[in-house]
Amino acid sequence: MQVASARGLKKPAKVAPADPHEPLRLLATPHDDLDMARGDCLDALPIAAAVVRLDAKGKAHIELANKQFLTLVGEMPRATDKLVEDVDFLRASGLGRAITNFLLGEEQALQFQGDDGHVVGGRHFEVGFGRLGRAQGSGLRCLVSLHDITAQVETERSLRGEMLRDSLTGLPNRLGFNERIDALLDDPHFAPDSHAVLVLDMVRFSRVNECVGAIAGDELLITFARRLFGALRAGDVLARTAGDEFGILMKLDRGVDDAIQIARRVESVLAAPFKLSDLEIGVDCAIGCALVKGTEQLSEEVLRNAQFALKRAKTLGQIQIYEPGQARAARHRFSIETELRHAIERGELSLAYQPLIELSTGAVSGFEALARWEHKERGSIQPTEFIPVAEESGLIVELGRWALDSAVRTIRDWDEEIGSKLPISMSVNLSAIQIARDDVAAVVTETLRANAVTGERLTLELTESAIIQDPYRAGRVLEELKGLNARVAMDDFGTGYTSLAYLQRLPIDILKIDRSFVTAMHDDRDSIAIIRAVLSLADALGMETTAEGIDSAELARTLSYLGCTHGQGFYFAPPLNAVEALDYWRVRSA
Length: 590
Hints:
590 residues; TIM Barrel; 3 domains; 45% helix; Nucleotide_cyclase; transferase
């Protein structure tokens, strides 16, 4: 859209031929001086500009144009008024129609981005329309300006391409993948369940980096991506959505059956070891899948759904399909986590104390401290709901410290109220996360010292999972606790996979028989056989035993007869607050 020197395109009067070396001057008209001044003003502009008028028939004509405009639009007769619709550039780019619509409208000014209509190698412009006053004998007019921004647009496109691409594999990254999903969701012809998103995670990839180095790890990612790409169909979109996580957007013909079939094919393709230099590396993958329903507001929601399924796949060891309730449950857990953090900070949690009874005598030998949370709006929130959230979020460390300090302080307060040292112990639960992340022995040492309570009055209970996850660290922690004269109990024994070698090697004092065996022992021969085996094992290893979940006198008598040392359950008493627990001890000890 560049015109030679801005000149009137009306029919000229007879004038001397123009010097080809001089800029194009306004054509001679009755208002030659005024037109020449207007043309000079256009020529002075650094961008392509033209004055366009509308005739009585609604046709747009180029009245004046500067050099840049004429150069841009190409060949144009210099001595005639030119219809906008006859200029190829303006017609192909759609600007001619836009100019006419603007002149027929009521806007005083308009600015937008346009191009020359070429898909490849096209030019881009910042287009401006500004309404002009009517000249004598003229119709509606406007000033058209075109600022060439091709370089800027191409740079932005290049930068955006880099922003949407993973630099290592060359695949779309998470942002680029989300754009593809957004385009799908915005498609008016989209059908629910016609597409799915698979998310794959390279299980234990961090160990590869640790063992063979980051460069080999990068090589593995590239090789993994190539093999994965080869397993896909035409039209499937593969992206690297995180460090060792890949996403696939795929079209489905048969709904979820298609998704499962493709996931299994991908799984089988990735099963063969990867060869890196002289190494063969086997890579296990977890795969989660979410169908695109169309009800999702954002692509991130679709990807997050697939990641929920991926998390379950890691736990269960097989391909998982997202179930709608998972997102709601995750949001609920996050809400619990946030409120639990505040509850710990504000001291809104409490401990309840369930009596531990010596089955042979009926005497109270101690209490187990159990965390309780009474929410001011939701009411009582069960430990089975907030303890797993605390473990997942890491809050269990802070929660565990609070529980230990509160329990030891309670037994100190009882001693002071009675006026002597009570012949009872306090049991406090330890999480596997606490053992892994906290200096448990140091925390216990400081708590006992601060409350002037000796270690033999404290029993620390831990589950089998705490030992299985890191036997070496667990053994070291237990030895340190034994050095403080504290006792160690293994909770829920029989429900996990503890090796007998651990029982023999670790300093464990008490085995706690899980309530699932206790409550079923009179109706299930297998349960009573398991209890007999546990009691015999404990006796052989010199350990005491505690049966959980005793809810009847018959169970208490049977367990005592079989040789179980202690018991707890609702037959004796439910968890009590500190005042009720001390009163209970008084009554049983009278």
